[in-house]
Amino acid sequence: MTNDDLFKSLIAHTKEYGFIFPSSEIYDGLAAVYDYGQLGVELKNNIKKYWWDAMVRLHENIVGLDSCIFMHPKIWKASGHVDAFNDPLIDNKDSKKRYRADVLLEDYLAKLEGKIQKDVEKGKRKFGEGFDEAQFRATNPNVLRNAEKMESVRTRMNEALNANDLAALKQLIIDCDIVCPVSGTKNWTDVRQFNLMFSTQLSNTSDDNGGIIYLRPETAQGIFVNFLNVQKSGRMKIPFGIAQIGKAFRNEIVARQFIFRMREFEQMEMQFFVRPGEEMKWFAKWKETRMAWHKAIGLGEENYRFHDHEKLAHYANAATDIEYNFPFGFKELEGIHSRTDYDLGRHQEFSGKKIQYYDPETKESYTPYDIETSIGVDRSVLAVLSGAYKIEKVDNGEERVVMKFHPALAPVKVAVLPLVKKDGLPEVAQKIMDTLKYDLNAQYDEKDSIGRRYRRQDAIGTPFCVTVDNQTLEDNTVTLRERDSMNQERIPVERVHDIVSEKVSMTRLLEKLK
Ligand code: ATP
Fold it and tell me: Which of 102, 123, 243, 300 is the most buried (most CB within 10 A)?
């Protein structure tokens, strides 16, 4: 199966089993908006808990916050979003399709990268054992030509984006001979800036702004404007962090790739306030800490990488992305930014309120510097779904679809299955359910053959199945089946709760972060 086919089959699987549904589906859907079904919401909640506990509970100097989606409109002026939260947009006049100019160029660069990779693979096959990849890359004329082209396109693109030179962006698209993937033509409009913020109106104001307020495009600003509230009420000492999980909204130009890019999504953001001058040390520390959080999920260390930014946002003095190897390639999953004192400084300027911290150690007052870690909940769900999705051949030659979630993240932890729907087995199984349901998300299932029920639980990623059979009536034991190995062992009924709880424990996952 190609990656594209695999991704399509994953999307179908998530719908079929109740993870993710297109929003408003009976009205033909709403672009780039998705609903989480009965299993999706459990998975999402587990990921949020993993993040929250890793950030807030494991760090004594990080506290939580839940600020509102609606905020004073001046906040978005101060943050720079009203003036600069734009994407460069370009339309193809023939297909009437709309694209992000920078994304067209990024895709073009990815194609060149793909060509280089193909040449390297060819070289490997041709020269076999003695193949020296570094030397091949440094001397092969095709590779050199494409690498040079990439370098030149990337430089021109970054220069145009940094200078906000929209004509230069368009010229670059033309010079690269980029065609619209739908119409196949180069009939492009000029590039325009498009603000990504959604706006709405407050009913009871008639200020000069017409009562316009914005749906927040990030949760971060809610943290900055509460900096003093939290610092003072919590008697927080620098360095300290404020973490929050919440919805954000962006009117994305190109909405595709399922829940990777949505118009309504959720973020998990943490702002860590430090002494000016110490930010690079903390930036390095948070890069390492956040990467460890991702790798502990067990989707394969090789599937993560850092991508340091060449083009820095106006507020940052260092920035990196943690990229994940999604079915459509390595893409941003989390951003880590050293945002300097920009945000607190701007809110001080725009609100006219002093936002400073008195440092009892240095006996100085200053505006703290900030390191941000910002990760999309939905992108994390997609990473976990795509990393966990496996189609395997089993011993009898059949195929099984299995979601190999980390047990602590799995939506359903254990299924209790009476072998048959008679002989008092359902009653025993229900009693076992009663011992599990307070601590674990457990599912009872008595329909169909046991084999089909195991397949259903594999397909939703349930790590353990407990089967009640006639032997249970005799010796009070059940079989415990493990999802990945499919191994079965007999255990006493009274140990089911403790054994399963230990194996699916979030604590064990968090302990890996030590
Ligand atoms: P991109 O370059 O992919 O548009 P970004 O750099 O604008 O992302 P940030 O502003 O750094 O993203 O937001 C932090 C995180 O929020 C991202 O790493 C991503 O996980 C998530 N995120 C941002 N935009 C979206 C979106 N439209 N849908 C889902 N998640 C998003």
Answer: 243
